Amino acid sequence: MSDENSIVERTSRVTRSREQARQSYNSMSRFYGFLSSGSEKKFVQTAIEGFLKPHEGERILEPGFGSGQVLVALARAVGEEGKAYGIDISDGMVEVTRKRLAREGLEGRVELTRGDAASLPYEDGFFDGIFMSFTLELFDAPEIPVVLQECRRVLKDGGRICVASMSDQGKHGTMMKLYVWAHRKLPNFVDCRPIHARAFVEDAGFEVTSCEIMSMWGLPVEIVLGGKGS
């Protein structure tokens, strides 16, 4: 297990407030899906099908669901006997996702909540699995352990968490330097910043059973699967 304080200290800070984030995503909600679906689709599919592997009848949570593409996939995977849950800070994203689910005929398989992943409104041990796609790295460094502890709390013993995240691991080439520069200059638009996802997941008490570094436009993406022991 890594030293949590050192991980937090070496992770860059997020300066915008929760309200600023909510307003930003509200503004982007109508077109956010067009921006994220193409670039993130491969990694989300790999994370769901190759790592999380949701089963029929399970309860799966997605914090930071954005415009809802992943919730559609999760709802189909858990079937009529299961249920997908989503929580997002943005009112706009909730509304866009609600409409998407209606178009797909999946309203009954998904429960949406407008809220904060740092304070999850669910019972202890409620979920079989949690999936976070390009969400964990949006939180300020000291908040990341808080979010992961909340995830651990609401997972069943033996439950699993899968995180797909921009990563500070792997090769740091020109694209990484340009991306980090753009994040610093335009944090409301280039909102994700690279973190060491595996280290954070391990420090939250999960047993990492699988981890892979992939590449998106020359930028490292970390996919981590962790389990909650009994």
Secondary structure elements and their pairing?
Layout: H1 4-10, H2 18-28, H3 32-52, E1 59-63, H4 69-78, E2 83-88, H5 91-104, E3 110-114, E4 127-133, H6 143-154, E5 155-166, H7 174-185, H8 197-203, E6 207-216, E7 219-227
Parallel strand pairs: 1-2, 1-4, 2-3, 4-5
Antiparallel strand pairs: 5-7, 6-7
Short description:
This protein has 230 residues and is α/β, with parallel strands linked by helices. The chain is built from 8 helices and 7 strands, in the order αααβαβαββαβααββ. Helices cover 41% and strands 23% of the residues.
What does this entry look like structurally?
The chain has helices at 4-10, 18-28, 32-52, 69-78, 91-104, 143-154, 174-185, 197-203; strands at 59-63, 83-88, 110-114, 127-133, 155-166, 207-216, 219-227. It has a single domain (4-227), classed as Rossmann fold (3-Layer(aba) Sandwich). It is globular. Helix content is 41%, strand content 23%. Strands 3-2-1-4-5-7-6 form a seven-stranded mixed beta sheet, with helices on both faces. The protein is an alpha/beta fold and 230 residues long. The longest helix has 21 residues, at 32-52.
Structural classification: alpha/beta
Distance between the termini: 18 Å
Q: State the CATH topology.
A: Rossmann fold
Largest sheet: 7 strands, mixed
Largest sheet, order of strands side by side? 3-2-1-4-5-7-6
Based on Cα principal axes, name the global outline: globular
CATH architecture: 3-Layer(aba) Sandwich
Radius of gyration: 16 Å
Provide a count of the helices. Answer: 8
Indicate the CATH class.
Answer: Alpha Beta
pLDDT averaged over residues: 87
Count of domains: 1
Helix content class = 40-55%
Can you write the helix and strand succession as a string?
A: HHHEHEHEEHEHHEE
Strand coverage percent: 15-25%
Q: Could you state the CATH homologous superfamily?
A: Vaccinia Virus protein VP39
- The strand count comes to 7
Uncertain segments are none
